[in-house]
Design a protein that fits this description.
The chain is mainly α. Helix content is 58%, strand content 0%.
Length: 330
């Protein structure tokens, strides 16, 4: 297929073919393939990633409820029950639904049950981190723990620590912490997010997806500053921006297996390298994406008055991909 004919595909499962098939089954109300997939999932990174994707697909259905009714002693069903409850609460909070408080309480209780039954599993602690932005008044003591270092903020550090005890390199936990930061003070939280990303990457081992975290913060800053009206601007070609993009490439991508990588991480890295004019390096990431695509952060390049933001973002992705793949030595 020529570059002119190429059209990327978005799927939340990305390169995980087994997960893609299960998501399709789940959407038709079938749960046995989900059970079998999770039974065959051997590492915490895959377990966390797969349960997150499955919960997003299952949140609008009663599939997990049916599974849990059929197999009430299933550990995986207990985890998925907590995952779905948290997904529903987070969505309700985002949509300002009047049932948010009740859904939040149900989700918190589901996490506690999960912790009691599965003390070694990081996912219920990740779920509690996902719920932390709902506590806007920081009424719960677990959401205002003193920080572990200077230039950081009071927050759910104990929850993050519980995840780290079980999975020291949990990608989702750090993404959830960023969401908590943004919920603290939406207008003034960017410096805190920058400091958090620096703190997290400082101790992250080579190959950790945590090294992509600064690129998410940079995209959020760009989005807030309304820089979308220029295809390439100085925000992406400063020394700091180039350093962050190359650090993501060298400290994470060089070690990453696309089959186990988040499409969002790959998309943010490709976007950052392209924006920093590191075209041949970006080409490697575009190749790793293969036929897949994540709309974010490309949608943030679109003006709000664009006729079709989704289509415009995809066209921008295709232009960036083509530019990088045709770069010298790409």
């Amino acid at each position: 297929m020529s570059s002119d004919e190429f059209r990327p595909v978005y799927h939340p499962a990305g390169h995980d073919a087994e997960l893609r098939a299960v998501v399709q089954e789940l959407r038709t109300g079938r749960w046995m393939s989900m059970r079998n997939l999770l039974a065959d999932t051997a590492d915490w990174a895959s377990w966390t990633r797969r349960t997150q994707v499955l919960a997003a697909a299952a949140a609008g259905t009663d599939t997990v409820h049916i599974w849990r009714t059929e197999e009430p002693h299933s550990a995986a069903a207990t985890v998925m029950h907590a995952r779905v409850a948290v997904e529903r609460a987070v969505r309700a909070h985002r949509d300002r639904h009047p049932e948010t408080a009740n859904l939040w309480h149900e989700a918190w209780e589901a996490c506690q049950v999960c912790i009691g039954q599965l003390p070694d599993d990081p996912v219920p602690w990740v779920c509690l981190l996902a719920l932390s932005p709902l506590d806007r008044g920081r009424r719960m003591p677990e959401h205002r723990v003193p920080p572990p270092g200077p230039m950081l903020f009071p927050g759910p550090w104990g929850l993050l620590g519980e995840v780290a005890k079980r999975d020291p390199d949990c990608r989702e936990a750090h993404q959830r912490m960023l969401q908590f930061v943004y919920s603290r003070n939406p207008r003034g939280s960017l410096p805190e997010a920058v400091n958090y990303a620096r703190w997290a990457t400082a101790s992250a081992p080579a190959g950790s997806p945590v090294h992509v975290l600064p690129l998410y913060v940079r995209v959020e800053r760009y989005r807030r500053e309304r820089g979308q009206d220029r295809a390439l601007d100085l925000h992406w070609v400063t020394d700091d921006a180039i350093r962050d993009a190359l650090a993501g490439l060298r400290n994470w991508f060089e070690y990453a297996d696309p089959a186990d990588s988040s499409l969002l991480d790959l998309s943010h890295l490709a976007h950052a390298l392209w924006g920093a004019h590191q075209f041949s390096e970006a080409a490697r990431v575009f190749r790793a994406l293969g036929p897949y695509y994540a709309p974010v952060p490309w949608t943030y390049r679109m003006r709000d008055d664009h006729d079709d933001i989704a289509q415009g973002a995809q066209e921008l992705f295709l232009r960036a991909r083509s530019r990088c793949l045709h770069a010298p030595s790409a």
